[in-house]
Amino acid sequence: MPIWKALHVLSMFTMVAIFIGAEIFYAAAILRRDVRALAFIQSTVERWYLGFAALGGLLAGIVFGLLTALTGGFDVLAGWLVAAYVLVALFFVNAAVIGEKVVRVGKAAIEAEAGRAPAESVFGTLPANRGVVLVLVNMLIFAAIIADMVLKPF
Ligand code: HEM
After folding, report:
1. Distance between CA atoms of residues 140 and 117, nearest Å
2. Helix pair 100-113, 35-47: axis angle to 10 deg
């Protein structure tokens, strides 16, 4: 039904906007090794519940996507939908492997800014470009999913 598709696209765009938006700012602060900026970004993400909003958008988007498929006469095991499941799983892997480290340095930056930890310890062994890698990989995954949704190549 068109309403499920509309809610699906709305939820997914909300999720993409928040994740990619926040990650671009994390990437810039980590690249500059800017503890103050990173602490501000992390505390804003926490105060405005952006992580919950983005994850909520993704989970709602998956439910609405499945409802769209089930009510729209699509086969939920069609190749293009299986490709979408794999790409969404890849997003979770990227979040667990790189995203978790980025949030960890964000939390360490808050501690350093509050004077509870030395600023030199914030980044640990995290390479300066790791935030950029996080956002580029996610952009690639989301671009592939949107192309898959529109073109249905399989
Ligand atoms: C488990 C994951 C997903 C499922 C089951 C799913 C399912 C669907 C279905 C059934 C449609 C309707 C296709 C049509 O009417 O032609 C659709 C459309 C769409 N989906 Fe998804 N989707 C998923 C993930 C995503 C993600 C992560 C995004 C964005 C990053 C996304 C963006 C879109 C867009 C933009 C459309 C509209 C395409 C068009 O009308 O040409 N979907 N999706």
Report:
1. 36
2. 110
pLDDT tens, position by position, 24-70: 999 999 999 999 999 999 999 999 999 999 999 999 999 999 999 99
What is the pLDDT at residue 1?
Answer: 82
Domain residue spans in the chain? 2-151
Question: Dmax over Cα atoms in the chain, in whole Å?
Answer: 58
Compute the distance from residue 94 Cα to the ligand 1 centre, in Å. 20
DSSP letter for each residue of 49-63? THHHHHHHHHHHHHH
Place of tokens 């990227």: 94
Distance 29 CA to ligand 1 centre (A): 32
Decide if 74 contacts 81 (C-beta within 8 A): yes
Residue 153 has pLDDT above 90, yes or no: yes
Atom of ligand 1 nearest to the CA of 66: 5
pTM of the predicted protein model: 0.94
And the tokens for 96? Answer: 């667990």
> Which amino acid does the sequence have at 111?
E
> Residue for token digits 């492997």?
97
Give, for ligand 1, the residue of 3, 4, 8, 59 to mutate: max count of ligand atoms closer than 8 Å to Cβ.
Answer: 8
